[in-house]
Amino acid sequence: MARIAVMGAGSWGTAVGKVLADAGSEVVMWARREEAADDINTNHCNGKYLPGVVLPSAVSASTDPAQVLDGAEEVVLAVPSQTLRANLENWVDLLAPNIGVISLAKGIETGTLMRISEVVAEVAGLPEGQIAVLSGPNLAREVAEGQPAATVIACTDAARAARLQDAFSTRYFRPYTNNDVVGCEIGGATKNVIALVCGIASGMGLGDNTAATLVTRGLAESTRLGVALGASQTTFAGLAGLGDLVATCTSPLSRNRTFGERLGRGETLEQAQEATNGQVAEGVKSCTSIVELSHRAGVEMPLTEAVHEICHEGGNAVEVAVRLMRRSTKPE
Ligand SMILES: NC(=O)C1=CN([C@@H]2O[C@H](COP(=O)(O)OP(=O)(O)OC[C@H]3O[C@@H](n4cnc5c(N)ncnc54)[C@H](O)[C@@H]3O)[C@@H](O)[C@H]2O)C=CC1
Ligand SMILES: O=C(CO)COP(=O)(O)O
């Protein structure tokens, strides 16, 4: 039985811990709070993030990263994108030199504009073939309940991607492999921003034509950015692109969509933040780094710019929407 460390016991880290244990691994989770580790060890659940979900007995937890990482063959990084660097810096001396890393994060680091696998490579000094990313339409609650879902495991080392595919395969969770790490990470980060704009539109009372327009044009601008950064266009038509975009833009379980809805109803950023139960809505910060990345790459991302303006420049959603509709006409 392989021993896998999951660093982060939030909603997705916990759901992924359950998947890995159901697929046959021994899973040790790192939790920030003692109560979370106790809850997992004593009650086999994580009541703060996934109330009612029973975790397999092969899942245990600790707040001590040394204990969690001791003997681990793989380490899953399940902390928010903007905190990953600082967390990993604390753990780097505890990683075995040949350890495999799997990033679950869906964001772009602010300031550096790095994808999260690039942050991992820089901080841990690992070659890119040792770093994989997992991304797809995977709302944590549904996966934890055992509802059927698929995902993508991307790694430049195809043999490693195939090994991870096995390690994550269960009767309800079906991973596909891909070698397009850039496309999977860009798709995962941009869909959160498009989910914010879909939520804003919904909060403003707009209907399904608007939502479908935002999803489709959101996919167009995400693909434009990804391709400019070296990704494959086909990745954006797959699970880590369109698949995740649809799930996140339409689901009431999405933190990003819900956050946007509150903004669209007129709440401030602070009010919307209060309602997240301490969970991350990655798009709020990543919209800034994605706008900067798009400028650097020379591609237009009007919807992402709109979200940035509403979230961080005091933009009024109605005025921003009117301006978007008045953009010059163009071929599709
Ligand atoms: N929840 C979901 O349905 C999915 C989430 N993801 C991605 O997985 C990553 C992790 O997300 P979740 O587990 O959902 O997040 P979460 O907000 O539910 O949990 C974050 C975890 O990171 C820990 N953490 C460590 N350092 C932290 C810090 N400085 N600030 C805040 N939290 C800190 C928290 O204690 C918590 O255990 C994100 O990038 C997210 O976009 C990806 C797919 C599905
Ligand atoms: O990434 C997700 C689904 O694939 C989760 O989305 P939220 O972070 O918006 O909840």
TrEMBL record:
InterPro entries: 6-PGluconate_DH-like_C_sf (IPR008927), 6PGD_dom2 (IPR013328), G3P_DH_NAD-dep (IPR006168), G3P_DH_NAD-dep_C (IPR006109), G3P_DH_NAD-dep_N (IPR011128), NAD(P)-bd_dom_sf (IPR036291). Residues 4-159 form the Glycerol-3-phosphate dehydrogenase NAD-dependent N-terminal domain. Pathway: Membrane lipid metabolism; glycerophospholipid metabolism. Sn-glycerol 3-phosphate binds at residues 106, 136, 191, 244, 254-256. Keywords: Cytoplasm, Lipid biosynthesis, Lipid metabolism, NAD, NADP, Nucleotide-binding, Oxidoreductase, Phospholipid biosynthesis, Phospholipid metabolism. It is an enzyme of class 1 (oxidoreductase). Pfam families: NAD_Gly3P_dh_C, NAD_Gly3P_dh_N. NADPH binds at residues 11-12, 32-33, 49, 106, 140, 255, 280, 282. It catalyses: sn-glycerol 3-phosphate + NAD(+) = dihydroxyacetone phosphate + NADH + H(+); sn-glycerol 3-phosphate + NADP(+) = dihydroxyacetone phosphate + NADPH + H(+). It comes from the Bacteria. It is found in: Cytoplasm. One of its GO terms (molecular function) is glycerol-3-phosphate dehydrogenase [NAD(P)+] activity. Residues 180-318 form the Glycerol-3-phosphate dehydrogenase NAD-dependent C-terminal domain. SUPFAM superfamilies: 6-phosphogluconate dehydrogenase C-terminal domain-like (SSF48179), NAD(P)-binding Rossmann-fold domains (SSF51735). Its EC number is 1.1.1.94. Catalyzes the reduction of the glycolytic intermediate dihydroxyacetone phosphate (DHAP) to sn-glycerol 3-phosphate (G3P), the key precursor for phospholipid synthesis. Belongs to the NAD-dependent glycerol-3-phosphate dehydrogenase family. This is Glycerol-3-phosphate dehydrogenase [NAD(P)+]. It comes from Dietzia aurantiaca. The lineage of its organism: Bacteria, Bacillati, Actinomycetota, Actinomycetes, Mycobacteriales.
